[in-house]
Structures are given as structure tokens and as C-alpha cells.
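Re: weekly structure request thread

Next one in the queue (115 aa):
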Amino acid sequence: MRKLVTVLVALSLLAGGYTTSVFAAPEGRRGVSDQAMENASDQAVFNRVEDETVTVGESEEEKEDIMVERKAKRDVKKAKARLAKKEEKIAKRKAGKQQKQIQKKSKKTKKNLAE
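Done, posted below.
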């Protein structure tokens, strides 16, 4: 009986660890993480597989057109992401500068009030 209880406890612990790794993906999404997609080149495995599945049964000219279109969409998406990151950095810098200015002004007013 003890062995049975020990085995059941061990199995439940193993199953509990397995389910937490399954639920680790955001919104139950499976597959490649967003960070991997963001940093992926056009030669990444998941991009090539998606491109190949989309072009199955197409003629060579149609395949080439589809590939060019998909590559252009990925390039636009990457450029937008880079631009958004740059804008975010600029906004953070501006916010930091404004915060410092506010702190300086508050120190001056505290100093003036103390006098």
C-alpha cells in the first residue's frame, strides 16, 4: 500500500510539472515565441516551412511572387517593430529628463521655503 501511495504521489508531481510547462505559453498559444519571431531571419526554419506550405502546388512564377510578397511583409513588420522600439526609447529619455527637471524644481522650492 505504501508503494502504491508513493507511486501515485510521484506521478501527480510529475504531471503537475508537465501541465505548468504547457500553460507557460501566453494565452495558450503554441509554437514559436514572439521574441523568436521578432529576431528571426528569412532563413529561419519556421519562416521557410510556412513559405513552403503556402506555395505548395503553385507554379514557379507564382511561388516566386508569393515569396517576394511574404518577404516584403516580414521586412515591413520588422521595420515597424524597430521604429516602435526607437520611439519608445526616445519617449523614455524624454520622460526621464522631465522627471529630473521636476526633481530639480522641487528641490529649489523646498530650499526657498526653508529659507
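DSSP finds four helices and no strands in the chain. The radius of gyration is 27 Å.
Next request, please.
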